[in-house]
Amino acid sequence: MNPVQSIDFAITRSSHEEIGFLAQSRRCRNLWIIGFALIGLTLKLVIAFNTFGSSDVVIFYDFGKALTKHDLGWLYQHSIYFNHPPLTAYYLRAIYQLGHQPFFRGDGLTFPFLLRLPGIIADLITVIALCWMTGQDRQFRLPTWALALFALSPVSIMVTGFHGNTDPVMVMFLVLASLFCLRGKSVWCGLFLALSCQIKIIPLLLLPIFFFFWLSRRRAVSFSLSFVLASLVLWAEPLLKFPALFFKNVLSYGSFWGIWGITYCLRATNLGMFRMETFFFDISPVESFVVTVLKFIIIAAVLMIAWRRRNLGERALFDSVAYAWIVFFVFAPGVSAQYLVWLAPFVLVLSPVFYGWLAASSSLFLFFFYNVNAGGFPWYGVISDGRHGDWAPWSLWPWTTLILGLILLWKKAAAADPSLRLFSLQTLREP
Among the four residues 164, 275, 308, 404, which has the most C-beta atoms within 10 Å? Predict the structure, then answer.
């Protein structure tokens, strides 16, 4: 071997050793993160096993009871509060029946625990999915501290372990749908996005982002067929038997007025036109107008994000979903406490530092929300009794964080590309 070949061989060997070391380092880091997630899972299981949860557990228990005695159409007709797709209804009916079986009751596997169990498992799967993503693509390298914070997030522990709802499962399916975009699997992306919409209807808001992403890659047909067919199969019962009730209850839901963001600030003015109690129905005409305008702003912004960013790379899809969620939470007429898990994994990928601030402010709000409604620590059950003045001001912390984050992200993007315009339909290109 001549000297030149010896040098080339040494360089090649050194490069392979460096790559192997980095791969081993990433695997070790991911094992630590998954270990933290398992600790979080254990904490959530302990909390779920020893507490009752929020008033949502009571409401879902009543839904399960009604679904056992009657059918899905009866519940849509007799309860405007039931705004969930059929898959959630089927699960509630199943765990209501399981919770009354002697075997389950004897081991403490009651309805409140069974309601929270899928979300606890979903949180672990979401962490594993993000770890896999960061190990597969250099574009998604996230700081260890940020992943560790996400794995042991106080927001996740309070919402998933204590609150009692289906939101973490929805988030898991949405993250998996996004990951299949990275893999170029349009059919699987459509399937998991459809599954996300079966838990809660809100991911429909993000459909344009996924559709235009696949349209720019000439695979919109396979994505759409998968999404539509899965949705039709899972929505078959209400669509065939009582479509009007389904659309009225599920698709027209608008959350509560006056406890978040813009509507909270309007309510805090004490003007008569904005002092309606915090319901999502029977609000005043002026309040209804405000809600409609805010919804229009959100939908228009998401459509603009989807269209302008459709030709960007796979990494940009995660960022687009994050931007859409941020816009939603800034302008949403109402936000419930458990919604704060929706945007967490996407903001984490978009900006780990921003995620850190959002996690801190959201944790602060959630602590006071649960602590006030539970009558102090330790918490066993939380029934909101209308004392919004005691905890609602704390919701301004995450809301303000989102506004500041959105402004800073825009300034950063404008500094990188001075020709960028906020209100434009111009298609963005990779730099």
Answer: 164
- Residue 233 structure tokens: 């199969």
> How far apart, in Å, are the Cα atoms of 216 and each of 213, 219, 346, 391, 392?
6, 8, 22, 45, 43
**What burial class does residue 422 get, using C-beta atoms within 10 Å of its C-beta: 0-12 exposed, 13-18 middle, 19+ buried?**
exposed
Given this model, what pLDDT does residue 273 score?
Answer: 62
Question: According to the model, what pLDDT value does residue 354 have?
Answer: 97
Which run of H or of E encompasses 291?
helix 285-308
* pLDDT tens string 282-333: 677 788 888 889 999 999 999 999 999 999 988 899 999 999 999 999 999 8
Sign of CA dihedral 337, 341, 346, 350: positive
Beta carbons of 107 and 124 less than 8 angstroms apart: no
* 152 token code pair: 């042991």
For the chain, the domains span 27-416
- What amino acid is encoded at 92 in this protein? L
Contacts of 137 (CB under 8 A, 6+ apart): 182, 314, 315
Give yes or no for a contact between 109 and 49, defined as CB atoms under 8 angstroms apart: no
| pLDDT tens sequence across 109-154 | 899 999 999 999 999 999 999 998 887 777 778 899 999 999 999 9
- Give the tens place of pLDDT for each residue, 371-393: 988 888 899 998 875 555 578 88
